[in-house]
Amino acid sequence: MLVFPNAKLNLGLYVTSVRPDGFRNLESVFVPLPWCDALEVLPAADTTLTLTGIPIPGDPATNLCRRAYELLKTDFNLPPVQMHLHKVVPIGAGLGGGSADAAFMLRALNELFSLQLSPEKLEVYARQLGSDCAFFIQNKPVFAYEKGDVFEPVSLKLQGIACQVIYPGLHISTAEAYARVQPRPPRHALRAALAQPMETWRNTVSNDFEDALTPHYPVLGELKQALYAAGATYASLSGSGSAVYGLFPGMEEPPHVTLPAEYLVWNGKL
Fold it and tell me: In terms of DSSP H, where are the helices of 50-189?
């Protein structure tokens, strides 16, 4: 079975308070982004995971794909599988690539072995792997809150909008990002702000990590301004960084932005 785990974008991201368990409460809208990895899962004599594409740091035994398999194996008599992940979505970019890989592994195993798990049950497993993993089970725009793993439907007309995502080769760990941000109430109600025309979002829809991280990584602010200069109606940091994206409604494709050769760029439509 071959699946293509996609990334996500955050439309607004507010870190609102510290939870009793030490995690942060947040509010954001998650939107699927069709920048994809490739994940193959096959029955095999022994369980293995091979990796190609962008190098993934750490022990492959702790990779989220392997952890997703082991998690389901605790409750189901899964046979051994051969897993191969070709990594395309950059790591430490705020695009949820690792979480997507884990969620798509759960979905693939559910289908491959006819486990008959509902989307809601798959989300329960996904939440054990990471706060935003559950989003990729149903993989549609949602308003996310609490740890980013509780969802409500949201209506957005983004399909077909041209988008550019720029990753400056800067890995920002989630731990570092959260250590720099100060929880606070949202300055604007996110759902109400996003219900207004996109032209207004620049002044009402923000990402708390931008203010926290840009003084330490000026390139984030430079990329955002470059996207606005190129004609983006809205531009923002995604997640806890370091990918910056711009939305260009009414354009067939985003205009060219001159960037260093080592930057990774995705151009397409939502």
Answer: 64-73, 97-112, 119-127, 135-138, 174-180
Which candidate, 94, 91, 92, 115, places its Cα nearest to that of 105? Answer: 115
75 is known as an active-site residue: no
Tokens of 132: 């935003």
Nearest to 9 by CA among 254, 205, 225, 193: 205
Distance CA 223, CA 233 (A): 14
> How much is the pTM?
0.94
pLDDT of residue 207: 96
Q: What's 97's DSSP letter?
A: H
Q: Is 208 a catalytic residue?
A: no
**Pick from 58, 66, 123: which is nearest to 91 by CA?**
58
| pLDDT tens-digit readout, 94-144 | 999 999 999 999 999 999 999 999 999 999 999 999 889 999 999 999 999
> What's the pLDDT tens digit per position in 135-165?
999 999 999 999 889 999 999 999 999 999 9
Strand partners, 50: 84
Residue 253: φ, ψ to 5°: -155, 155
Given 37, 101, 132, 149, the catalytic residue = 132
Measured N-to-C along each axis, helices 97-112 and 119-127 cross at an angle, to the nearest 10 degrees, of 130
